[in-house]
Protein backbone atom coordinates (compact mmCIF):
# COMPACT_ATOMS: atom_id res chain seq x y z
CA UNK A 1 0.00 0.00 0.00
CA UNK A 2 1.05 3.58 -0.55
CA UNK A 3 2.30 5.60 2.41
CA UNK A 4 -0.83 7.73 2.87
CA UNK A 5 -3.14 4.77 2.23
CA UNK A 6 -1.44 2.89 5.06
CA UNK A 7 -2.38 5.73 7.40
CA UNK A 8 -5.95 5.77 6.05
CA UNK A 9 -6.17 2.10 7.03
CA UNK A 10 -4.50 2.87 10.37
CA UNK A 11 -7.18 5.51 11.11
CA UNK A 12 -9.89 2.91 10.64
CA UNK A 13 -7.90 0.35 12.62
CA UNK A 14 -7.81 2.77 15.56
CA UNK A 15 -11.58 3.23 15.33
CA UNK A 16 -12.05 -0.54 15.51
CA UNK A 17 -9.58 -1.12 18.35
CA UNK A 18 -10.85 1.76 20.46
CA UNK A 19 -14.38 0.67 19.71
CA UNK A 20 -13.66 -2.83 21.01
CA UNK A 21 -11.94 -1.52 24.12
CA UNK A 22 -15.00 0.59 24.82
CA UNK A 23 -17.73 -1.99 24.14
CA UNK A 24 -17.82 -2.56 27.90
CA UNK A 25 -19.23 0.41 29.80
CA UNK A 26 -17.22 1.72 32.74
CA UNK A 27 -19.59 0.19 35.30
CA UNK A 28 -20.43 -3.03 33.40
CA UNK A 29 -18.78 -5.38 35.93
CA UNK A 30 -20.96 -6.74 38.76
CA UNK A 31 -18.62 -9.48 40.11
CA UNK A 32 -21.41 -11.04 42.18
CA UNK A 33 -20.21 -14.61 42.75
CA UNK A 34 -23.09 -15.51 45.05
CA UNK A 35 -25.64 -14.90 42.30
CA UNK A 36 -23.38 -15.99 39.45
CA UNK A 37 -23.39 -12.57 37.77
CA UNK A 38 -20.10 -11.40 36.25
CA UNK A 39 -21.32 -8.38 34.28
CA UNK A 40 -24.49 -6.55 33.31
CA UNK A 41 -25.24 -7.71 29.72
CA UNK A 42 -27.08 -4.46 29.04
CA UNK A 43 -23.76 -2.64 29.47
CA UNK A 44 -21.73 -4.82 27.09
CA UNK A 45 -22.30 -3.83 23.47
CA UNK A 46 -21.66 -5.16 20.01
CA UNK A 47 -19.40 -2.97 17.88
CA UNK A 48 -20.84 -3.85 14.46
CA UNK A 49 -18.13 -1.98 12.57
CA UNK A 50 -18.31 -2.16 8.78
CA UNK A 51 -15.75 0.00 7.02
CA UNK A 52 -13.52 0.27 3.98
CA UNK A 53 -10.79 -1.96 5.39
CA UNK A 54 -12.32 -3.80 8.35
CA UNK A 55 -15.50 -5.55 9.41
CA UNK A 56 -15.80 -6.47 13.09
CA UNK A 57 -18.83 -7.42 15.16
CA UNK A 58 -17.70 -7.52 18.76
CA UNK A 59 -18.14 -7.12 21.64
CA UNK A 60 -14.60 -7.45 22.93
CA UNK A 61 -14.07 -10.67 24.89
CA UNK A 62 -12.56 -9.11 28.04
CA UNK A 63 -13.58 -6.14 30.24
CA UNK A 64 -12.00 -2.71 30.04
CA UNK A 65 -8.51 -2.03 31.27
CA UNK A 66 -8.09 -0.19 34.61
CA UNK A 67 -6.69 2.59 32.40
CA UNK A 68 -9.85 2.71 30.27
CA UNK A 69 -7.56 1.75 27.45
CA UNK A 70 -3.78 1.44 27.20
CA UNK A 71 -1.79 4.62 26.61
CA UNK A 72 -1.51 5.20 22.86
CA UNK A 73 2.13 5.81 21.95
CA UNK A 74 3.02 6.50 18.34
CA UNK A 75 6.05 7.39 16.23
CA UNK A 76 5.44 9.33 13.04
CA UNK A 77 6.89 12.60 11.78
CA UNK A 78 5.91 12.54 8.11
CA UNK A 79 3.06 14.85 7.15
CA UNK A 80 0.46 12.08 7.16
CA UNK A 81 2.03 10.39 10.17
CA UNK A 82 1.88 13.64 12.10
CA UNK A 83 -1.80 14.05 11.24
CA UNK A 84 -2.40 10.52 12.52
CA UNK A 85 -0.56 11.32 15.75
CA UNK A 86 -2.50 14.56 16.22
CA UNK A 87 -5.76 12.62 15.93
CA UNK A 88 -4.99 9.57 18.08
CA UNK A 89 -1.74 9.59 20.05
CA UNK A 90 -1.31 10.39 23.71
CA UNK A 91 2.50 10.18 23.66
CA UNK A 92 4.46 10.82 20.47
CA UNK A 93 8.00 9.52 19.98
CA UNK A 94 10.09 11.86 17.79
CA UNK A 95 13.66 12.47 16.68
CA UNK A 96 14.94 16.06 16.70
CA UNK A 97 18.37 16.98 15.36
CA UNK A 98 18.69 20.17 17.38
CA UNK A 99 16.92 22.29 19.95
CA UNK A 100 15.88 24.81 17.29
CA UNK A 101 14.39 22.05 15.12
CA UNK A 102 12.64 20.72 18.19
CA UNK A 103 11.06 24.05 19.08
CA UNK A 104 9.69 24.51 15.57
CA UNK A 105 8.37 20.95 15.19
CA UNK A 106 6.96 20.88 18.73
CA UNK A 107 4.97 24.09 18.12
CA UNK A 108 3.75 22.83 14.75
CA UNK A 109 2.60 19.51 16.17
CA UNK A 110 0.83 21.06 19.15
CA UNK A 111 -1.04 23.33 16.72
CA UNK A 112 -2.07 20.23 14.72
CA UNK A 113 -3.40 18.59 17.91
CA UNK A 114 -5.49 21.68 18.65
CA UNK A 115 -6.75 21.74 15.06
CA UNK A 116 -7.86 18.11 15.51
CA UNK A 117 -10.06 19.26 18.41
CA UNK A 118 -7.89 17.85 21.19
CA UNK A 119 -6.12 19.46 24.15
CA UNK A 120 -2.41 19.91 23.25
CA UNK A 121 -1.49 19.79 26.94
CA UNK A 122 -2.76 16.20 27.10
CA UNK A 123 -0.63 14.94 24.20
CA UNK A 124 3.01 14.54 25.16
CA UNK A 125 6.00 14.81 22.82
CA UNK A 126 9.09 12.81 23.78
CA UNK A 127 12.23 12.96 21.61
CA UNK A 128 14.84 10.23 21.78
CA UNK A 129 18.07 11.18 23.52
CA UNK A 130 21.33 9.73 24.77
CA UNK A 131 22.77 10.66 28.14
CA UNK A 132 26.48 10.43 28.81
CA UNK A 133 26.85 11.45 32.45
CA UNK A 134 29.73 11.08 34.88
CA UNK A 135 30.94 12.61 38.12
CA UNK A 136 32.79 15.33 36.15
CA UNK A 137 32.57 16.79 32.66
CA UNK A 138 36.08 15.55 31.82
CA UNK A 139 35.20 11.94 32.64
CA UNK A 140 31.94 12.20 30.68
CA UNK A 141 33.74 13.54 27.60
CA UNK A 142 36.30 10.72 27.75
CA UNK A 143 33.48 8.21 27.97
CA UNK A 144 31.77 9.83 24.98
CA UNK A 145 34.97 9.65 22.92
CA UNK A 146 35.25 5.92 23.56
CA UNK A 147 31.61 5.37 22.56
CA UNK A 148 31.98 7.40 19.36
CA UNK A 149 35.16 5.53 18.38
CA UNK A 150 33.30 2.20 18.30
CA UNK A 151 30.89 3.20 15.48
CA UNK A 152 31.35 1.46 12.09
CA UNK A 153 29.78 2.16 8.70
CA UNK A 154 28.71 -1.45 8.28
CA UNK A 155 26.64 -1.25 11.47
CA UNK A 156 24.97 1.91 10.21
CA UNK A 157 24.14 0.23 6.88
CA UNK A 158 22.54 -2.76 8.61
CA UNK A 159 20.43 -0.52 10.83
CA UNK A 160 19.44 1.77 7.92
CA UNK A 161 18.37 -1.27 5.89
CA UNK A 162 16.30 -2.46 8.82
CA UNK A 163 14.45 0.79 9.50
CA UNK A 164 13.88 1.75 5.84
CA UNK A 165 13.19 -1.77 4.50
CA UNK A 166 15.75 -1.30 1.72
CA UNK A 167 19.03 -3.12 1.05
CA UNK A 168 21.64 -0.37 1.36
CA UNK A 169 24.44 -2.78 0.46
CA UNK A 170 23.41 -2.81 -3.21
CA UNK A 171 24.35 0.85 -3.79
CA UNK A 172 27.85 2.46 -3.83
CA UNK A 173 28.46 4.85 -0.93
CA UNK A 174 28.53 8.00 -3.07
CA UNK A 175 25.84 7.19 -5.63
CA UNK A 176 22.72 9.38 -5.25
CA UNK A 177 19.36 7.71 -4.78
CA UNK A 178 16.97 8.16 -7.69
CA UNK A 179 13.49 9.57 -7.08
CA UNK A 180 12.09 6.07 -7.63
CA UNK A 181 14.45 4.54 -5.06
CA UNK A 182 13.61 7.21 -2.49
CA UNK A 183 9.92 6.47 -2.98
CA UNK A 184 10.62 2.81 -2.05
CA UNK A 185 11.93 3.70 1.41
CA UNK A 186 9.30 2.74 3.96
CA UNK A 187 9.96 5.32 6.71
CA UNK A 188 9.22 8.61 4.96
CA UNK A 189 9.75 10.84 8.01
CA UNK A 190 13.27 9.41 8.36
CA UNK A 191 13.93 9.82 4.61
CA UNK A 192 12.65 13.41 4.57
CA UNK A 193 14.84 14.31 7.55
CA UNK A 194 17.95 13.12 5.67
CA UNK A 195 16.95 15.06 2.56
CA UNK A 196 16.33 18.22 4.60
CA UNK A 197 19.52 18.14 6.62
CA UNK A 198 21.79 17.02 3.75
CA UNK A 199 20.46 19.82 1.56
CA UNK A 200 20.22 17.34 -1.33
CA UNK A 201 17.11 16.32 -3.22
CA UNK A 202 18.78 12.98 -3.95
CA UNK A 203 21.13 12.09 -1.09
CA UNK A 204 23.73 9.33 -1.28
CA UNK A 205 24.18 6.30 0.96
CA UNK A 206 26.97 8.24 2.68
CA UNK A 207 24.53 11.09 3.33
CA UNK A 208 22.12 8.66 4.98
CA UNK A 209 24.93 7.38 7.22
CA UNK A 210 26.25 10.85 8.10
CA UNK A 211 23.01 12.78 8.50
CA UNK A 212 21.00 10.08 10.27
CA UNK A 213 23.84 9.09 12.60
CA UNK A 214 22.26 5.62 12.57
CA UNK A 215 24.21 3.27 14.82
CA UNK A 216 26.12 6.14 16.47
CA UNK A 217 25.55 8.57 19.32
CA UNK A 218 24.87 11.22 16.66
CA UNK A 219 21.57 9.54 15.82
CA UNK A 220 19.80 11.29 18.69
CA UNK A 221 20.47 14.36 20.79
CA UNK A 222 23.19 13.64 23.34
CA UNK A 223 23.31 15.33 26.72
CA UNK A 224 26.84 15.02 28.06
CA UNK A 225 28.61 16.22 31.19
CA UNK A 226 28.30 16.23 34.95
CA UNK A 227 24.87 15.61 36.52
CA UNK A 228 24.34 19.36 36.90
CA UNK A 229 25.33 20.05 33.28
CA UNK A 230 23.12 17.31 31.85
CA UNK A 231 20.19 18.46 33.97
CA UNK A 232 20.74 22.02 32.68
CA UNK A 233 20.70 20.77 29.08
CA UNK A 234 17.53 18.74 29.55
CA UNK A 235 15.79 21.55 31.42
CA UNK A 236 16.55 23.89 28.51
CA UNK A 237 14.54 21.60 26.23
CA UNK A 238 11.62 21.53 28.66
CA UNK A 239 11.48 25.29 29.03
CA UNK A 240 12.11 26.18 25.35
CA UNK A 241 9.63 24.37 24.97
CA UNK A 242 10.72 21.57 22.66
CA UNK A 243 9.35 18.52 24.48
CA UNK A 244 7.32 17.18 27.39
CA UNK A 245 9.73 14.39 28.28
CA UNK A 246 12.35 12.11 26.74
CA UNK A 247 12.76 8.57 25.49
CA UNK A 248 16.12 7.54 26.88
CA UNK A 249 18.21 5.41 24.51
CA UNK A 250 21.30 3.54 25.70
CA UNK A 251 24.56 4.68 24.11
CA UNK A 252 26.28 1.59 25.54
CA UNK A 253 25.37 -1.52 27.48
CA UNK A 254 25.78 -2.26 30.31
CA UNK A 255 26.11 0.96 32.26
CA UNK A 256 24.19 3.71 30.47
CA UNK A 257 20.97 3.39 32.48
CA UNK A 258 22.85 2.72 35.72
CA UNK A 259 24.69 6.04 35.33
CA UNK A 260 21.42 7.89 34.73
CA UNK A 261 19.77 6.41 37.82
CA UNK A 262 22.80 6.85 40.03
CA UNK A 263 23.93 10.32 38.95
CA UNK A 264 21.27 12.17 36.94
CA UNK A 265 17.95 11.21 38.53
CA UNK A 266 18.81 12.66 41.97
CA UNK A 267 19.71 15.99 40.36
CA UNK A 268 16.48 16.06 38.32
CA UNK A 269 14.50 15.19 41.46
CA UNK A 270 16.18 18.01 43.36
CA UNK A 271 14.97 20.43 40.66
CA UNK A 272 11.43 19.02 40.68
CA UNK A 273 11.81 17.68 37.13
CA UNK A 274 11.52 13.99 37.98
CA UNK A 275 9.12 12.15 40.27
CA UNK A 276 10.15 10.77 43.65
CA UNK A 277 7.14 8.47 43.96
CA UNK A 278 4.79 6.75 41.57
CA UNK A 279 1.44 8.51 41.17
CA UNK A 280 -0.47 5.24 40.81
CA UNK A 281 -0.36 1.63 39.62
CA UNK A 282 -0.71 2.29 35.86
CA UNK A 283 1.32 3.99 33.17
CA UNK A 284 -1.59 6.37 32.57
CA UNK A 285 -1.51 7.41 36.23
CA UNK A 286 2.21 8.10 36.14
CA UNK A 287 2.01 10.12 32.93
CA UNK A 288 -0.72 12.27 34.40
CA UNK A 289 -3.23 11.24 31.72
CA UNK A 290 -6.94 10.97 32.52
CA UNK A 291 -8.69 7.61 32.50
CA UNK A 292 -10.19 6.99 29.06
CA UNK A 293 -13.95 6.73 29.53
CA UNK A 294 -16.10 4.50 27.30
CA UNK A 295 -18.95 7.01 27.29
CA UNK A 296 -16.68 9.69 25.81
CA UNK A 297 -15.75 7.50 22.87
CA UNK A 298 -19.32 6.36 22.18
CA UNK A 299 -20.51 9.97 22.22
CA UNK A 300 -17.80 10.96 19.76
CA UNK A 301 -18.68 7.99 17.51
CA UNK A 302 -22.32 9.00 17.34
Give the helix/strand layout:
Layout: H1 3-21, E1 29-32, E2 37-39, E3 49-50, E4 55-56, E5 73-75, H2 79-88, E6 91-94, H3 99-115, E7 124-133, H4 137-149, H5 153-164, H6 179-184, H7 188-198, H8 205-212, E8 221-225, H9 227-239, E9 247-249, H10 256-270, H11 283-287, H12 294-301
Parallel strand pairs: 5-6, 6-7, 7-8, 7-9
Antiparallel strand pairs: 1-2, 3-4
Q: Please outline the major beta sheet.
A: 5 strands, parallel
Structural class: alpha/beta
Order of helices and strands: HEEEEEHEHEHHHHHEHEHHH
Strand content bin: 5-15%
Radius of gyration: 23 Å
Could you tell me the mean pLDDT?
90
**What multimeric state do the chains show?**
single chain
**Unreliable sequence segments:** none
Gap between N and C termini, in Å?
A: 30 Å
Q: Helix share of residues? A: 40-55%
How many helices? The count is 12
Shape verdict: globular
Number of strands: 9
Structure, explained:
The protein has 302 residues and is of the alpha/beta class. Among the domains are: 1-64, no CATH class; 129-240 and 256-270, no CATH class. 45% of the residues lie in helices and 12% in strands. It has twelve helices and nine strands. It has helices at residues 3-21, 79-88, 99-115, 137-149, 153-164, 179-184, 188-198, 205-212, 227-239, 256-270, 283-287, 294-301; strands at residues 29-32, 37-39, 49-50, 55-56, 73-75, 91-94, 124-133, 221-225, 247-249. Strands 5, 6, 7, 8 and 9 form a five-stranded parallel beta sheet that branches. A two-stranded antiparallel sheet has the order 1-2. A hairpin with a 4-residue loop joins strand 3 and strand 4 (55-56). The chain is globular and about 70 Å long. The relative contact order is 0.13. The model has no long low-confidence stretch (mean pLDDT 90).
Amino acid sequence: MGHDARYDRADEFMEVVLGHWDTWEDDALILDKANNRFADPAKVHRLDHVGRYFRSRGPFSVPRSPQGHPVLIQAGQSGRGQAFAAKWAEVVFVIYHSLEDGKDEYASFKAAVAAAGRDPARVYVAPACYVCVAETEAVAQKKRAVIEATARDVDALVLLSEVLNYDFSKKPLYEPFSDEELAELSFQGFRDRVIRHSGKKNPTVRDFITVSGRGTVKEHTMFCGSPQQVADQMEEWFTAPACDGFVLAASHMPGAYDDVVRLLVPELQRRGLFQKDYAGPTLRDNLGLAIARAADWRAARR
